[in-house]
Write a structure and sequence with these properties.
single chain; mainly beta; Methylamine Dehydrogenase, Chain H; 4-stranded antiparallel β-sheet; globular
Length: about 400
């Protein structure tokens, strides 16, 4: 069993040890309420669903998932199918309505005896034809969405925790080998690579013809998708495990040092910093943003709602353990998991709790919302992927 706590400690330790010609890109963003194609439902990584969920959610089905799903993961949904990557090295395709298993893809079809096959720590990204996901051994996989058959693989030099962004005919992702990769989405051939100064843990955000990446080198980098050249580089003073979210000229991301930052990426200025001096705990969850509200989980066991314009606190919601699960906004509610083994729904406006489900293990993965269903995976030996909706 691979535990999130151990994985987080390893990530933090390794970061600290190092931290002293295609056509113009056409970006496709999820707006369909029936789908959730990548980690945060769209290239700008805002974590907002296309529609609200039923008020009284009921458990519709659950599916065992080997070793579970961690904080960098979430299920993807497209075409009535659910795609879930697990730390047990399985990519599962399930029927959204019934939870029935349609196919299973293994990171290593013929593992050595008495060894783990490489797990999938990242969320899958799904296009019309292909599922993309990286594994713990640094292999990036492209799998046929309908059949579960391998299309191609690309080998990096270290673990891939980053979920991919598909932009036109290109697929972009980061690796612990400190490189940002851009490959041909159909063939897997390299288009370009960009080397940073340390591990890339989060997923790349996309705005226009640029991709934005943060990581253990403490920098925010803006890379031209067409050329692979760095156009802006801004030191942020702390390494980042979370993925950034973008709204217009602004980028929002939490740091390991316990600050949440609003950055004007065009001006290369930090507009505001949010923190609680009494509880300076890491932000490893990625933020959800709707209108003027930012919602983000923290290892201080709380979920924070921040005014996007001023950086002032609007409300906090306390759980009994770390919140590494990245919140999702659906309608006027916020959904997230906690290491206290609960899944919560609170009002976006006030933070008032409106729904809760008690599970048997920690919920550190991010929820997904599609087709009137809420999906979230737990972790550990009793891990399951749960699907909620109206009965």
């Amino acid at each position: 069993m691979r535990l999130t706590t151990n994985r987080l400690l390893l990530i933090v330790a390794t970061c600290l040890s190092v931290a002293h010609a295609a056509p113009p890109a056409k970006v496709t963003v999820a707006t369909d309420a029936s789908s959730w194609p990548n980690f945060r439902n769209g290239h700008e990584l805002r974590g907002v669903a296309g529609a609200a969920l039923p008020e009284n959610l009921q458990l519709l089905w659950s599916q065992p998932i080997p070793d579970g799903m961690v904080y960098t993961s979430a299920a993807a949904v497209i075409g009535g199918r659910v795609y879930a990557s697990t730390l047990g090295g399985e990519l599962l395709c399930l029927d959204l309505k019934t939870g029935k298993k349609l196919w299973r893809y293994l990171s290593a079809p013929k593992p050595e005896p008495d060894t783990f096959i490489p797990g999938f720590p990242a969320a899958p990204t799904v296009s019309e034809e292909t599922v993309y996901v990286g594994d713990e051994d640094g292999v990036f996989h492209a799998i046929d969405r309908k059949t579960g058959k391998k299309r191609w693989v690309w080998k990096t030099q270290a673990e891939v925790n980053s979920s991919a962004a598909v932009v036109g005919n290109r697929v972009i992702f980061g690796s612990y080998d400190a490189n940002l990769y851009c490959l041909d989405a159909k063939t897997g051939k390299k288009v370009w690579t960009f080397q940073t100064a340390d591990r890339i843990n989060g997923s790349p955000a996309i705005a226009g013809n640029y991709t934005f990446v943060t990581g253990c080198d403490q920098h925010l980098r803006m890379i031209n998708i067409k050329t692979g050249k760095q156009e802006k580089d801004m030191a942020l003073g702390s390494f980042m495990i979370a993925s950034p979210a973008i709204v217009g000229d602004m980028l929002y991301v939490g740091t390991h040092d316990g600050e949440f930052l609003a950055v004007n990426w065009k001006k290369q200025e930090v507009t505001w910093r949010y923190s609680d001096p009494q509880k300076m705990q890491p932000y490893h969850a990625s933020a959800a943003i709707l209108g003027d509200r930012i919602v983000v989980g923290c290892q201080d066991k709380r979920v924070h709602c921040i005014d996007r314009k001023t950086g002032k606190r609007l409300w906090v919601f306390a759980t009994r353990a770390q919140v590494n699960s990245s919140p999702v906004i659906a309608g006027n509610r916020v959904y997230f998991g906690s290491a206290d083994r609960n899944i919560y729904a609170v009002e976006l406006k006030s933070g008032k709790p409106v729904w809760k489900f008690r599970g048997k293990s920690d919920f550190n993965a991010a929820p997904s919302v599609a087709g009137g269903r809420l999906l979230i995976g737990s972790e550990g030996t009793q891990a399951r992927l749960l699907c909620f909706g109206a009965k």
